[in-house]
Structures are given as C-alpha cells and as structure tokens.
Amino acid sequence: MKPRRLVESVESVGVVDWDRRLFDSLIPLPDGTSYNAYLVRGSEKTALLDTVDPAKIETLLENLQGVESLDYVVAHHGEQDHSGSLPVILEKYPRARLVCSPKAKGILMDLLALPSDRITTVADGETLSLGDKTLEFIHTPWVHWPETMCTYLREDRILFSCDFFGSHLAQSGLLVRDEAELYLGAKRYFAEIMMPFRTAIQKNLERVKGLSLDYIAPSHGPVHNRPAFILGAYRDWISETPKNEAVVAYVSMHGSTEKMVGRLTAALAERNVTVHRFDLAGVDLGKLAISLVDAATIVLASPAVLTGLHPNVAYAAFLANALRPKAKFAALIGSFGWGQKMAEQVLALLPNLKVEVLPPLLVKGAPKESDFGAVEDLAETIARKHKDSGLA
Ligand code: FEO
Prior knowledge:
Blueprint (H helix, E strand, L loop, with lengths): L3 E4 L2 E3 L2 E3 L4 E2 L3 E2 L4 E3 L2 E4 L4 E4 L7 H7 L8 E3 L5 H4 L2 H7 L4 E4 L1 H11 L6 E3 L5 E3 L4 E6 L9 E5 L4 E5 L16 H16 L3 H12 L5 E4 L8 H12 L4 E8 L5 H15 L3 E6 L5 H10 E9 L7 H13 L5 E8 L5 H8 L6 E2 L3 E4 L4 H20 L4
Parallel strand pairs: 8-9, 9-10, 10-11, 15-16, 17-18, 17-19, 19-20, 20-21, 20-22
Antiparallel strand pairs: 1-2, 2-7, 3-6, 4-5, 7-8, 12-13, 13-14, 14-15
Helix pairs in contact: 5-7, 5-9, 6-7, 8-12
The structure holds MU-OXO-diiron.
C-alpha cells in the first residue's frame, strides 16, 4: 500500500499485512492485520511515528522514498511488530533522534541493541515542536506493556495510540469503513491483549477523555474517524459488571460430555442466559476470548483423560486465567470412566479469576436422567446467581 494522506502533512506510511494468519504464534488473525506508521511533516521538522514488523521493512522503505531526512522517530511501544524496523530506519536516517518513554528506552536497547546515545526520553505531557505542528506525549502504561505511550498531534487533533484502540483488520482504506466490522476486530484485539489490564485502561481513558479528537490512529487496523465509537466500546469492555452470558467451553471424546453440554446449553437458554458454546477441539481462540469479555459465568466441560482434564480444556482454562476476564462464576461438568481428579486441576488453573466456583458436576459413564436433572439444576443455579447479581 502506498502512502495515504490522513490530513494535510500527515501520511500513513505503514503496511497492510493481508495474509498474516497468526500473531505471537498464538492469536488467529482471520482478517489479517496492519502495522501502521505515520509521517508527520511540520514546517521545520519531520517525525516518523512507529515503524513496522521487520518482515515488512521493504514496504516501509518504499513508502519513505523521497523523504530525505527525519528529525525524529517516535517509538510508542517496544514490541517488535512496531519497533523491529527501528535499527534499519535509524541507520538510514543517521540524524534522527529516537523518542520514547523512559521505560521504553531500556526495552528497546534490550530487544534491538539500539545505542543509548540515539535515544531521547520524553516525560508524560512533554511536547516536541515540529514548527507548525506540536507532538504531545501522553504516557499510557499497560496498553499493553509497561512502557506504552501515545502521541497527540495538537493542531490536527489526532491521537496516535499504538496498540491502544487497535484492531487486527486488513483493509484497503485508511479509515473505518464499517463500525460493526471494526467492533468485532477491535473487541478481539482487546480480548487478546488488553483485557488483563482493565484498571490501567480505565486510567488511560481518563487521560485521553479531555482531548479534542478528530481521529484516533492506532498502530493496527483502520483509523477511527468517529473516536466516540471506540471510546464507548472500550468503556463498556472495561466495566467490571459482566452481562447475563455464559461461556460453555467443552471437549467430548465419546459423546457423554457433549450430551451434558447440549442439555446445559438448552437449559440456560430457556432461562434467558445467553450462551457462547465452543468445542475446544477446533476452536478459534479469538472468538473464545471475545466471549470472555462480557460473560458472567464460565463453564468448562471435560471428559477425564488419564484421570485428568482433557488437555484442550486445561489449555482453555490456562488462557482464561491469563486473560483475567470479569466473570463472577465458574463451573466444571463432564464425565469419567473409572476415576478422575479434574476438579482440583481446574481450581489450580484459575487462581487469577475472582470467581465463585460452583460445585462440580462429574458423572460416571454416560449421563443418566438423574444426571440431566443435575444439569438442569446447575442451569437454574447459574440463572439465579445472574439474577441475584442484577445481571438479568
Ligand atoms: Fe502491536 Fe504490542 O504490539
């Protein structure tokens, strides 16, 4: 993608990665992604805001053809999908100063072996004049690393937010084209890397609340030309109040656990609890993470494998524990042939979650009518707890 003008003297010079399907060797990217970098030309100085994943450096260099000199390169974040091309850019532009937060300096030196004498750190609220354009640096830690910061371009009312407000969404246009599509991509992104930092995000939202904003330009996905939309979505996602929803994540080997899940899904739905059901044998982890953003209850369902949880269920529990969703209740159901110790394993895997763990429902062999009755009772308990919590 060639450089694209955002406003006068501000261009997007980053890269759309249409074909990338996995991020961090973990996160599925059904719609690709982009590594956004922006060139801001002031009347006296020029700054590049962020670089791109080093795998795409050639495109960034093509987009910078004709840019004879850079005075500043701003690194909002040390993670290599944005910083990884800094060594090449700093070599190409030997007069450029690398500008970052104090915490980012050490991270960039550790990750990329950048020389200390090329780096200028900026304090929270510090400004840098490019002549007729002013960059204001706003420290926004933990979106999603400790060193992350944003830049506010005062004259054009643009917030360059790096990962904050980002989405893994490849598209040809620069601006959000469809807010429903953007919403899902941004929620997936929030769920995967921002959700554990809800408290920090709340503080960061307060920091940007007072800014007059025409655009929010993140480092992944489209530029927000209606900032209120993504700001409102973030306020909803970081709320500590979940919705009347349950995630039911299961694996079944011979059908017994699946039958219990089927009855539980129907019983919850009858009681007006929205169910997000996932067969972990072939799950899109991003969709599972999205559903964890709002769910009040997480139900894991597993057959016993050598007396323990099915490894896919253990993996989902480990992931949920890392993402720290706001769920209030958790439950385990499943079946075993001759012995099991699954309940203890689940408890050990979820220490980060502030959940009330409901009594496990583990049946020997195929579920019988009395077992299905117990499943109905569990659904009733979940629905009642949601209601008592003011969610229904
Ligand atoms: Fe897009 Fe945290 O890097």
